[in-house]
Amino acid sequence: MRWSAPTVVVLAALLCLPLAARDAARKHEPNTRVPAGVVRFAPSVFPDRIVASPAQDAATGFSVAWRTSAQVDVPLLQIVVAGDSPDMGMPREVQSSSRELRTENGLAHHHRADIDSLKADTLYAWRVQGGGTWSAWHHTRTAARADVPLTLLYFGDTQNKNTSLTTRVVREAMRHAPDARLSLFAGDLVSGGDGEDDNEWGEWFEANESLPTSMAVAPAIGNHEYFEEFEDTPRERRVLGAHWPLAFALPGNGAAEAASTTYWFDYQGVRVAVIDGTSVLDLGTASAQARWLDRVLASNPHRWSIVLTHQPFFSPRDGRDNALLREHLLPVIRKHRVDLVLQGHDHVYGRRQADGAQTPVFVVSVAGAKQYRSSEEARASMRPVAEDTQLFQVVRIDGTRLRYEARTATGRLYDAFEVLDGGAAGKRLREVEEGRIAGRACARTQTLKGRSDRCWE
Ligand SMILES: [Fe+2]
Known about the structure:
Elements: H1 5-16, H2 19-24, E1 48-54, E2 62-69, E3 76-81, E4 92-95, E5 97-103, E6 106-115, E7 123-128, E8 138-141, E9 150-155, H3 162-176, E10 182-185, H4 197-208, H5 211-214, E11 216-219, E12 226-229, E13 237-240, H6 244-247, E14 263-267, E15 270-274, H7 277-282, H8 286-298, E16 304-308, H9 323-335, E17 340-343, E18 349-352, E19 361-364, E20 371-372, H10 376-381, E21 385-386, E22 391-398, E23 401-408, E24 413-421, E25 427-431, E26 454-456
Parallel strand pairs: 9-10, 10-11, 15-16, 16-17, 17-19
Antiparallel strand pairs: 1-2, 2-6, 3-4, 3-7, 5-6, 7-8, 9-22, 12-13, 14-15, 18-19, 18-21, 20-26, 22-23, 23-24, 24-25
């Protein structure tokens, strides 16, 4: 290959310049790919933003949310046991409910259909109606009995530049766990605000491609799914963003004080409880959510339990300390011996246990482009930690063994462990060191925007 002289000069400069000088020649990437004045995600008669979420008992039901233009009202969902012939028989029809939402992309209708009375461990084909049209037939398998092995995915914050840089993480996760049936998202799916959050939601669905229609999606709400009303005034307060209750069809069995942002469900031998850290920290629901969580975990008939939350109990980022979570909810999590506490918010990776106990294992991870820095305390109290790394996690549960893997955006193993249930002897954690890559730390002193407290944004 022959390169032109200017190309050689540029390549030589890129190879020789230190990181800071190279960064000075680069431009910060905008939060979405949508240029100002361009309409990319207008709702239409074709259903989009289709996402399945588990029912409280995921063996017998799931719910679906989708979006169309406002001319489509209470459309149908059709569902049938999936078959090999294109003639899968007469589908059952489920009526939806519709609510409108006006955004920078115009007026949309968001629909929700709840499907019950399904057979466990059964592959269903389903599609949703638009205006004179239908979606593709999607395949989703209901949860199986508790003793059937389960693979699930867990993603930290996606939040920024979702089409550009979350897409590759989701694809790598699907490649590494094609058998995953459930996907947990730890909040801050979008960044919100700035009159562009509908484009951000459009990009979140674009980045996730076939994931939300091929498995059950369970998200925790992040602080970025709220917005600040009366910002910078004494009346400032957090208000739930308009997208959250419409974008997902969640079980609706949460704490009364945080009804649309907390919920729980059983998925194949695991009880998953999703709490709202923003409401705990800023809206005064700490003790109410703790009482609710206590009830949810006390009635868990299964061997395994996971708590999903946005804000971490132990923060790996400098200057953050979510004391109310530890004060009110940590005793409940300890009392019921939760296995995994899966978290986001801090845009770094860190894993730890607490007070010498084997479980729960607390993990903070990040899937998206925004990367912060670990605190000194995190480097001393967590292992491993990571900066400047996009990650996804695969959890495999098989009987008495839970195996956890954190992999980088290129699929390399960064962290792994197993939790082994010894029955009366309790659960113990076994480190898996084999195959892990070396620890990763941020190599730059500031971001392209000049922020030294972050590594990339
Ligand atoms: Fe956050």
